[in-house]
Design goal:
- The complex is a heterodimer of chains A (261) and B (297).
- Chain A is globular and about 85 Å long.
- Chain A has 261 residues and is α+β, with helices and mostly antiparallel strands.
- Chain B has eleven helices and no strands.
- Chain B starts with 22 loop residues before the first helix and ends in a 6-residue tail after the last helix.
- The chains are: A alpha+beta (261), B mainly alpha (297).
- At the A-B interface, helix 2, helix 3, strand 6 and helix 7 of A face helix 1, helix 3, helix 4, helix 6 and helix 7 of B.
Chain lengths: 261, 297
């Protein structure tokens, strides 16, 4: 069965229960206790030991779904997570076969195989995967593979008090998410749209198994507007490499052959 | 344009900066020099009067690829698991292809050194030359196979820059050794071709990267930009030095300058890429300009 996350940012209240539940269940180390000065966000980004990250955006714009009633100001919050891309760059560039697709269609890094080469870190178009300094291996959201194996909901979705994070069968989630957007539009809240719900939305990754309902441009949430798995583009690079290699051999042969004496 | 134009999330990076250390660009240099040297050696091995050059080429090929492989192991988060690199064969991963290529090349280059003059050594030397050609350029493919806007954007030219610079690097190293007149001429031609193509390819890469201003910027500014300029100047200088009438001293100077240029180039591309990854605008602008998925899907 393909399972997924649908994160509806319009009902996120920024409580960070997902961050805490994820850390607790997965036994993740802290990332230091620093005040960033960036609104309520002291986590800042997803990383090797942060697999859910709540962003806080103080947006000087009137956004129908999230207005505060105080001038042109909107409060946006979003719980970010690994997208478990349909076409996952990290998996495709992994040279050890450590990164695999599970029976739930999620993307999983096998810690007993990973040798910390860092290729997936550079390849992820969302900046999700990172290498843990003291450990040397790459880490990211496992989609609670262990919990799912036993039929449990991932820790973050379980802990979310507003059902901003919804977990379930991917097709059902998509249906539900589309209905939610239609409902919001019907109520005149036209800013709502789905990010990554299908291959049409994010063609470069073939859609995302963890997709989002957003109300502003992706950049506002630190999401790429047109993410792409580099493996879809690298063919041209291989072709020019082939030409260059052929040219190099010709240059070597010619350098020798030009000497007739 | 949208109301979010120019917006970032507190200027925080959108993708992760590559975790690779200095050992990786150092390997790019050594691997490039090794591959190009092997190619020249295999082209020269049918000529009995170039035997000394062939031996030097093979030694550079073997020592370069062995040291390079060591540097790559050093860069791993878990060095003791380096053999996992040969656990799968994955064509979609440039690093997987490169690992197999490097392992094969290193074996061949070693055989060519140890069994010099024997049939097996000659065959290994010949095949190492063929494997050496892609070894110089695949590293450019590897960098393009990432989310880093600069590297992804320069994906047509980067392999050519690295391959031609591999030729310059090999010729510069050979210039540092004592060669007879005949060998000197062969190396001179090889190096000339490498450096001329390298300078042209660098200009082409600048153009490719500068299609979007914020994507190309790290080649102009900061550490990456300074090293890029240094690489250009040194490579140009080395080229000029090899065009004026030759003396042994001038040839060695050209070799030193050329080697420094080839090393600066690898570190420039490396640091410029890191800067590009840190800049969220580079990723956003690149994709909004239609150079993300829209370019291919």
């Amino acid at each position: 069965m393909t399972t997924g996350f649908f994160t509806d940012t319009t009902v996120c209240i920024g409580c960070k229960a997902c961050e805490v539940a994820c850390k607790e269940w997965n036994g993740l180390p802290d990332d230091g206790f620093v005040f960033s000065g960036m609104s309520y966000d002291n986590t800042l980004s997803l990383g090797a030991s942060t697999w859910r990250h709540v962003s806080f955006i103080e947006r000087p714009a009137a956004i129908s779904t999230n207005t505060t009633g105080v001038g042109d100001f909107s409060w946006l919050m979003m719980s970010d997570v690994c997208k478990h891309c349909e076409s996952a760059a990290c998996l495709e560039v992994c040279p050890t076969g450590s990164i695999v697709r599970t029976e739930f269609d999620s993307v999983f890094i096998q810690p007993d195989i990973c040798n910390g080469c860092g290729m997936c870190v550079a390849a992820c178009p969302f900046g999700v995967v990172d290498r843990r300094e003291d450990d040397g291996r790459a880490w990211k959201c496992t989609f609670c593979y262990d919990r799912q194996k036993d039929g449990f909901t991932p820790a973050c979705a379980q802990a979310c008090p507003t059902e901003s994070i919804q977990f379930g069968d991917l097709d059902e989630l998509k249906e539900h998410a589309r209905a939610r957007v239609e409902d919001l539009h019907a109520r005149g809240l036209h800013d709502a749209y789905l990010y990554g719900v299908d291959a049409e939305s994010t063609p470069g990754t073939g859609g995302l198994n963890a997709f989002f309902l957003l109300v502003d441009e992706p950049e506002v949430y630190n999401l790429p507007p047109d993410p792409v798995s580099s493996t879809k583009k690298v063919g041209r690079s291989w072709r020019t490499m082939g030409l260059a290699a052929a040219g190099l051999l010709v240059a070597a042969i010619a350098s020798v052959a030009a000497d007739r004496r | 344009m949208s109301r979010a134009e120019g917006t970032t999330y507190y200027d925080l990076p959108v993708i992760k900066e590559p975790v690779w250390i200095w050992a990786v660009p150092a390997y790019f240099y050594l691997g490039g020099a090794a591959g190009a040297a092997a190619a020249l050696g295999s082209a020269a091995q049918r000529k009995s009067n170039l035997r000394g050059l062939v031996r030097k080429c093979r030694r550079i090929a073997f020592a370069g690829s062995l040291t390079g492989a060591g540097l790559l192991v050093l860069d791993l988060g878990r060095p003791e698991r380096f053999l996992n690199m040969l656990r799968v064969f994955r064509p979609t991963s440039a690093m997987s292809m490169g690992s197999w290529l490097l392992a094969t090349f290193n074996g061949l280059a070693g055989t060519a050194v140890v069994f010099d003059g024997h049939g097996i050594g000659e065959v290994a030397g010949l095949v190492a030359g063929v494997a050496g050609a892609p070894l110089t350029g695949y590293t450019g493919v590897l960098l393009s196979d990432t989310a880093v806007p600069l590297w992804q954007s320069a994906r047509s030219t980067l392999p050519v820059v690295f391959a031609s610079s591999g030729v310059s690097a090999a010729a510069s190293l050979l210039d540092l050794t004592d060669l007879n007149e005949r060998e000197r001429r062969v190396v001179w031609r090889f190096g000339l071709a490498g450096q001329a193509v390298e300078l042209a390819a660098m200009t082409a890469m600048e153009r490719e990267a500068h299609r979007v201003e914020s994507v190309g910027r790290p080649l102009k500014e900061g550490l990456g930009g300074s090293l890029w300029k240094t690489a250009k100047v040194l490579t140009g200088l080395s080229l000029l030095l090899s065009l004026v009438p030759q003396s042994s001293k001038r040839r060695k100077l050209s070799g030193v300058v050329g080697s420094a240029g080839a090393i600066a180039l690898r570190f420039s591309v490396f640091h410029a890429g890191k800067a590009s990854a840190r800049d969220p605008r580079a990723t956003f602008d690149h994709q909004r300009a239609g150079l993300g998925a829209r370019e291919v899907v």
